[in-house]
From TrEMBL:
Polar residues bias spans: 130-143
Record's protein name: WDR17 protein
SUPFAM superfamilies: WD40 repeat-like, YVTN repeat-like/Quinoprotein amine dehydrogenase
Alphabetized InterPro entries for the sequence: Quino_amine_DH_bsu, WD40/YVTN_repeat-like_dom_sf, WD40_PAC1, WD40_repeat_CS, WD40_repeat_dom_sf, WD40_rpt
Region of interest: Disordered: 1-21, 120-152
WD repeats: 187-229, 360-402, 403-445, 446-480
Organism: Anhinga anhinga (Anhinga)
TM annotation in the entry: none
Gene3D superfamilies per record: YVTN repeat-like/Quinoprotein amine dehydrogenase (2.130.10.10)
Keyword Repeat: yes
Amino acid sequence: GSKNQKHVLRPESLEGTDEEDPVTALEWDPLSTDYLLVANLHNGIRLVDSESLSCITTFNFPSAAASVQCLAWVSSAPGMFITGDSQVGVLRIWNVSRTTPIDNFKLKKTGFHGLHVLSSPPKKKSCSSQYPTKNHHTSSTSEAVPPPTLTQNQAFSLPPGHAVCCFMDGGVGLYDMGAKKWDFLRDLGHVETIFDCKFKPDNPDLLATASFDGTIKVWDINTLTAVYTSPGNEGVIYSLSWAPGDLNCIAGATSRNGGFIWDVPKGKMITRFSEHGKNGIFCIAWSHKDSKRIATCSGDGFCIIRTIDGKVLHKYKHPAAVFGCDWSQNNKDMIATGCEDKNVRVYYLATSSDQPLKVFTGHTAKVFHVRWSPLREGILCSGSDDGTVRIWDYTQDACISVLSGHTAPVRGLMWNPEIPYLLISGSWDYTIRVWDTRDGTCLDTVYDHGADVYGLTCHPSRPFTMASCSRDSTVRLWSLTPLINPLQINILADRCWDEIIGNTDRAVESGAPPLLCGKVSRDIKQEVEKLTGNPRGKKLRWFSECFSPPGGSKNLWDLVAVIKGQDDSLLPQNYCKGIMHMKHLIRFRMSKAQELTTVKMSKFGGGIGAPSKEERLKEAAEIHLRLGQIQRYCELMVELGEWDKALSVAPGVSMKYWRKLMQRRADQLIQEENDDVIPYCIATGDVKKLVSFFTSRGQLKEALLVAQAACEGNIQMSPLSTTSGSSKSGGNHTDDYNELLHEVSKELAEWYFQDGHAVLAACCHLAVENIELAMANLIRGNELELAISVGTVLGESAAQATHYALELLARKCMTVTTWDLAADLLMMIPDNKLQLVKLCAFYPGCIAEINDLHEKCNLPDVEECMRLAETIQADGDIFETIKYYLLSTEPEKALPIGIQYVKEQLCGSDWTLDSVCPYLDLLSYIRTERLVLHKCSEFRNELLILCGYIGALLAIRRQYNSIVPALYEYTSQLLKRREVSVPLKIEQLSEELDAWRACTQLNKPTDELPCTPPSESQRMVYSVLVSRIQEEPLKGMVGPDYVAGSNLPSHSDVHVSCLTGLRIQGPVFFLEDGKSTISLNDALMWAKVNPFSPLGTGIRLNPF
């Protein structure tokens, strides 16, 4: 029966009829408890009073076809609301006092899905130059500031505010209503589960995805934008497969509508396959060894092999539904299938039999995907609903490994194309797991996806960048390089080929270090061996491009090549799409503008939502204007019919050109018999033309008036003189412009950097040849391997930063298996004596191993170091004494000497960071197992407290603002809880922290609370701190660290930082207890200023 309805209010036109008109959106007025905005599908929007049950206002749309999808009140402007249309992306702005919209903006071709108004605009960086403050006095000679142009209705100006807009095609953006522009727009995306993803065989930058929403999209993974989308809606698309090579086609498989081939550049479906009828096709696979064959497998129990024009070659019947198939990478006639009957089958196409060659049994539930290994002949894997992945050896007819760990059915499967034992699986348990198939261990489990993980893929030429797709409707990109340490460092350390590249048999030996066994690494090796002279730079670049994820490393290397004097003709074709060197900017922009003007299309046609001719000409004009080519801009504006824009800037070319343009406009208006011609003629002093215009229209009085005015000298022929002071304009502005260029590039770099794109930030600096800042950005983004590669090629100009990066990377290598690599890296630094001492001091081996390392590092053996320490101690050189004790058989003897020295320094009044840091830094390299001994506990606590306090000051020096309070708090806690005698007091620490906060105004004032200026005593405390801290010696290292992915949202795995108590965004770092977490950015900054873990255990932190 029908539910109780207390009050029903239908649109008036429907009263007393049975017609349905569903409500599409409703919102309560934020300023009233009774008013409600209601949108009906056919009858538009009404403002309703729920108290009196009456309709207050009915709003009218400009066209009857428009219907509202969503609406939202604008809280910053009482009575204002906005609506989004359902058919086209038109944003309309309304005020309750009028029945028609104040303004309409067409934002996109597709309709709205949702809208939300953010009342406070996102914070802009305060630029005093742009926003004059209230106390700028206006004098009578100031230039008038024109009021903002109001919209059609002059009574309303638009509210400041941002609308979050979501569209039906998956587009999402932040629209600034006041400025009428997008702050951010992701043009389109999937709106449902993404079942499959694959890279284009001949282009590692293009990734295709297939979705439940009925489309396949092709993404450029450098810009994360969709560049093509399949036409129409195909129903649910389960699977896709690229045509081999550069055929530019994608085969797709659907749940009800068979299979198809989509010609991507032409944008149309060219073939359809209907052999499976209405049954779902779960997998489609285009053979890469024989491009004429495509396999599909379906719920009807058949795996069908056909030619691309639809001729069936084989039909393999299975006892139940077939879910997965995969062509062998070594034999073009072999294909494997996964079936609901829990079995894996291998078929051989060269025989006429329709029976499988092999049947593998073992799974206890249905088998979904199967994948042949690209590097090991005869090895294949299968994933099943039983939650396991099984590895089969075709030649032995056997299952050689079962990988258990997933807690739900397994879907995505991917072998790595370079490391033969690396296998990655995705599951309905929301996780991705990385396996070492040699012994079946799970190397890593990733919890980021918010739902089932369906597809996993990577491109052979970028083997350590993986894409995954999921029911959470996202595609995520991953870097696998952490799994193959120390391979990349072997290349940096110039190790022999045998430690970098190997054959499969060597690589799959149990416990062998990772070796590259794929085609890409072999190709690089061959190319390097062909080079004469010093091939190191090329080798570093090629491997760097193979290891680095997308997002700027190619761009970075192009800029390095330009700086090193490479010929421009060798630059790649897409160089102009990235961040260009300053000397190319104007040239390439000019050709871009020309290209837009001639409206040529690329060979791929228009692509998605190709801009109209008008839009392209506008864009061209804008570029010309920014390049200072005013005349070109004017002419394009004329072509677009925007005469006023052209005329307003024409004097910038010359007065002569402006007059000519005015005359052209006047001639056109006279032809159109348009009254608007009058001001043009008067301004240019063209009296004759104007008089004849009036006469021809019979307006003789008007003609008389103009002629009279001219006779009396009121209408001037405007003189041709240019502006006054032109003689001075030849002065030298280049220095100013140069400074400006650097400022702008710095600002852009900072924007990229804070967005987690350190490599692009470095590109901005390299484009203006600021090598120091480029290197600093790479190091602060923890792109150490890339920084060292690029720094090595750039040479002397990058040397200081390269050495610092080598030092940090050597710290990363101070782990059980890679000590000798750390030594090799430090050997690449010219002045490395002290660094090698620290490495040997920290090395935890037995005496014989320690002595071997000492020998490699050119240091005396441990006994000799003990003797030296005692001798030097007698002479009173404290630093050298500490050094040799640390290298001796009893390193703990260094602790009291060093700590006593630092305590004495801190008791004085004029100590600085530089006078104590070297001592604490050296002491911190004492072997961990000695430092944690019970007999050292007092010294350990004092060392931790001193390192914590000095770390806080270093963090202030480097502006690591997020961890300064945490370091002060950590030091206070240690002081409170542990028995120590150090010249520090808890009250002093909190005073310093408050003074730092007050004087750097980090407790930024909100709009409500004005900032309280620091007190006199706080100023005093802070000035003492500043005098102790002094300048950071490494330029460009000042400012926080941001690693790649810093701004990505966390998903299934929410971690809370034990430093800040806040949820961590971006990469997470686990501390030594295995459960405490901090953000990777904070971990990197902490380790750079305080080597010891925030847990106070005395264990060194190694997040690099």
